[in-house]
């Protein structure tokens, strides 16, 4: 698979040097997963799910890759591990979190991977940076653009652009 772009990843960090971690994640993704096409601004966001934890820095990036969706997932998990991610609590504090939001217009639901990511439409910390770099990208199941999903979102959490 070598088509250009339309593979979107969400990066998040709320422990340690958050800016440095996002930078390291982008570098490792470019080395191991695919070429960086574009990246959103970085946003500071309220924690989601478990709210008693530090604020996150979040960013959406678009890449092009020759890897299949499951290979992208495996590489993302390897990168998280390399950067010090330890999975002990769902939605808990973490050095790095990398979510595969979209893999082109692929729709799949396997034991390891659901595409598109099942909670894109529920999270402003995803929708705002996604709408910044891909306002017209259409969610293949909901048939709405990133901007339309953001306008319809019932999430009112604080998402502030910082760089």
From TrEMBL:
What GO annotations for molecular function exist for this entry? 2-amino-4-hydroxy-6-hydroxymethyldihydropteridine diphosphokinase activity
E.C. code: 2.7.6.3
Ranges where the 7,8-dihydro-6-hydroxymethylpterin-pyrophosphokinase domain occurs: 90-101
Q: Give the superkingdom in one word.
A: Bacteria
The UniProt keyword set, sorted, is: ATP-binding, Folate biosynthesis, Kinase, Nucleotide-binding, Transferase
Which pathway is this protein engaged in?
Cofactor biosynthesis; tetrahydrofolate biosynthesis; 2-amino-4-hydroxy-6-hydroxymethyl-7,8-dihydropteridine diphosphate from 7,8-dihydroneopterin triphosphate: step 4/4
Homology family: Belongs to the HPPK family.
The record, for NCBIfam families, names: folK (TIGR01498)
Question: What the protein does?
Answer: Catalyzes the transfer of pyrophosphate from adenosine triphosphate (ATP) to 6-hydroxymethyl-7,8-dihydropterin, an enzymatic step in folate biosynthesis pathway.
Q: Protein name, please?
A: 2-amino-4-hydroxy-6-hydroxymethyldihydropteridine pyrophosphokinase
Q: Which species does the entry assign this protein to? A: Dyadobacter arcticus
